[in-house]
Amino acid sequence: MGMIVKEVKIEGDKGTAKVKALFDSGASDSILRKDVADNNCNDV
User: Fold this and answer.
1) Contact at 8 Å (CB) between 11 and 24?
2) Where are the beta strands (DSSP E) in 1-44?
3) Which residues touch 21 (CB under 8 Å, ≥6 apart)?
4) 3-state secondary structure of 15
5) Strand partners, 11
6) Mind listing the pLDDT tens digit for each residue in 1-44?
7) Which residues contact 12 (CB under 8 A, 6 or more apart)?
8) Taking the C-alpha atoms of 38, 34, 32 and 21 in order, what is their torsion angle to the nearest 10 degrees?
9) Are 44 and 34 spatial neighbours (Cβ–Cβ below 8 Å)?
10) What pTM value is reported for the model?
């Protein structure tokens, strides 16, 4: 299986950001790096 890399838009109360995301087709959850979340949302 190959890696799935897509550009996604993250929106929060502090603003928005476009980031590259790595997806796992067999995963049941998705996670976001804390520094990306902190830059876009007050309530992490």
Assistant:
1) no
2) 4-12, 15-23
3) 5, 6, 7, 8
4) strand
5) 16
6) 678 999 999 999 999 999 999 988 888 888 888 998 898 988 76
7) 37, 40, 41, 42
8) 90
9) yes
10) 0.62
What is the separation of C-alpha 15 from the centre of its chain, rounded to a whole number of angstroms?
14
**Residue at 42: amino acid letter:** N
How many CB atoms are closer than 10 A to CB 21? Answer: 15
HSE toward the beta carbon, residue 41, CA cutoff 13 A = 11
- Give pLDDT, residue 17: 92
**Cβ neighbours of residue 40 closer than 8 Å, sequence gap 6 or more:** 10, 11, 12, 13, 14, 15, 16, 17
